[in-house]
Design goal:
By secondary structure, the chain is mostly helical. The protein is 82% helix and 0% strand. It has 9 helices and no strands. Helix 1 packs antiparallel against helix 7, helix 2 runs antiparallel to helix 6 and helix 3 packs antiparallel against helix 8.
C-alpha cells in the first residue's frame, strides 16, 4: 500500500469520532457558513499536517501536560461562549442570527482556523501523521494522504452542520454545543491524571 493511501486509511477513521469533527459541526451551526468553516478548517489542517510531517518525532518532545491544558482551556472557553449565546437568545432570534451569520464568512473562517488549529495540536491524527512520515520516509506522500482524509471528514461535518441548522433552533444548538465543548474540556482534563 502506498504511503498516501496508508496515511489516508489511518487518519480518516481516527478523525471521524474526533473532537475536531464535532467542533466543525458546532462552528457550522454557529455561523451557518459551511464553506467558510471548511476553508478555515482546511487551513488549520494544512498547517497541522505540515507541522506533523516536518517535525516528525519533535512533537513527542512537547510536554503533554502543556498541550493538554491548552486544548482543555480552548474547549472550556468555547463552552462558555456557546452557553452565553444560548442564554442570551431565544427561538425567535433565529432570523436576527441569520443576518449576523450572513455577514461573517471571514469571521467564521478565522474562528474555524483558530479553534481547529488549537484542538489539533498534539492530536492523535497529528501524531499518527508524524509517525508515518518518519516510518515511511515519504513525508510528502504521507502529508497528502493525511490532508485528504482531514478535508474529507471536515467536509462531511460542515455539510451535516449546515443541514442541522435547517431543522433545529440556534438556542438549542448552542446549548448542545456548550455541553459538547464542556464534555471535551472535561475529557481533556481527565488526561492530566
Amino acid at each position: 500500500m502506498s504511503s498516501t493511501l496508508q496515511s489516508f486509511a489511518a487518519v480518516f477513521p481516527a478523525e471521524l469520532p474526533d473532537k475536531t469533527m464535532f467542533a466543525t459541526i458546532v462552528l457550522t451551526t454557529r455561523y451557518r457558513r459551511p464553506l467558510a468553516i471548511w476553508l478555515g478548517s482546511a487551513g488549520a489542517f494544512f498547517l497541522h499536517v505540515s507541522l506533523a510531517v516536518a517535525a516528525g518525532s519533535l512533537l513527542s518532545l512537547l510536554p503533554t501536560t502543556v498541550v493538554t491544558v491548552l486544548v482543555m482551556s480552548m474547549f472550556a472557553i468555547g463552552a462558555a461562549f456557546l452557553l452565553k449565546e444560548a442564554l442570551g437568545s431565544d427561538d425567535d432570534e433565529d432570523e436576527e442570527f441569520d443576518l449576523r451569520a450572513g455577514s461573517t464568512a471571514k469571521t467564521a473562517a478565522i474562528a474555524a482556523f483558530a479553534l481547529i488549529g488549537m484542538a489539533e495540536l498534539g492530536d492523535l491524527t497529528q501524531l499518527t501523521t508524524a509517525s508515518l512520515a518518519a516510518k515511511t520516509g515519504t513525508p510528502f506522500h504521507v502529508g497528502v494522504g493525511a490532508f485528504a482524509a482531514l478535508l474529507a471528514v471536515s467536509a462531511l461535518a460542515a455539510t451535516f452542520g449546515a443541514r442541522l441548522t435547517e431543522r433545529i433552533s440556534m438556542q438549542k444548538l448552542n446549548f448542545v454545543g456548550a455541553a459538547v465543548f464542556a464534555g471535551f474540556a472535561a475529557w481533556t482534563a481527565l488526561e492530566l491524571f
